[in-house]
Amino acid sequence: MTADTIAAPRSPRTPARKSGPNLEKWGWIYMRVSGVALIILIFGHLFVNLMLGEGISGIDFAFVAGKFASPFWQWWDVLMLWLALIHGANGMRTIVNDYVTHETTRRVLVWALWLSAGFLIVLGTLVVFTFDPCLGIESSSTDWLIETCAAL
Ligand code: HEM
């Protein structure tokens, strides 16, 4: 084994199967199904934001405000957020279970993963659905923003 090779897992965790739903199996299936959905969501997101219209130079506050005004893009972004965070946290849980030998440390890390993913999911979902470009505009704001918000 060379120095840059990742060591084989030292703590393959194989807890005795209990009755009830096989969560490991559903987690395995989730990684594949969410992976396929994420290809569409992530590359669709990149294509629309970076290649259509003015491309990357067209991204500014107005662009984001315009997208978040549409329920279609709100749901697109929220779906991407939920699927990617649960996918990432579950993937990291697999790695932690494989490599962390100390049981208490493993438990703390897995809890920290789900807590941080849960916090970001709640925060991100709130931001997407409560985003208001006119909240707190002042006379120092750009002209188009004052005009647009005054017209609403
Ligand atoms: C293009 C979209 C994506 C696809 C198709 C995809 C696909 C997959 C698949 C099939 C696995 C399971 C691999 C295995 O069990 O051996 C996996 C694992 C994983 N994914 Fe993704 N994924 C995508 C995006 C993401 C994103 C956005 C994140 C981070 C938020 C992420 C983080 C992870 C992690 C941490 C693992 C665990 C790796 C491991 O077990 O060694 N993936 N991915």
Structural description of this entry:
This protein is mainly alpha-helical. Helix content is 67%, strand content 0%. Helix 1 (23-50) crosses helix 3 (71-99) and helix 3 (71-99) packs antiparallel against helix 4 (103-130). The N and C termini lie far apart (65 Å). The model has no long low-confidence stretch (mean pLDDT 89). The structure holds protoporphyrin IX containing FE. Protoporphyrin IX containing FE (HEM) binds next to helix 1 and helix 3.
Bound molecules: protoporphyrin IX containing FE
Helicity range of the residues?
A: 55-70%
Number of helices: 5
Q: Which architecture does the CATH hierarchy give at level 2? A: Up-down Bundle
Give the SSE order as H and E letters: HHHHH
Q: Can you tell me the CATH topology?
A: 3 helical TM bundles of succinate and fumarate reductases
Blueprint (SSEs and pairs):
Layout (H helix, E strand, L loop, with lengths): L22 H28 L10 H8 L2 H29 L3 H28 L12 H9 L1
Helix pairs in contact: 1-3, 3-4
Salient structural properties:
single chain; mainly alpha; transmembrane; elongated; heme; 152 residues; Succinate dehydrogenase; 3 helical TM bundles of succinate and fumarate reductases; iron; binds protoporphyrin IX containing FE; SuccDH_FuR_B_TM-su
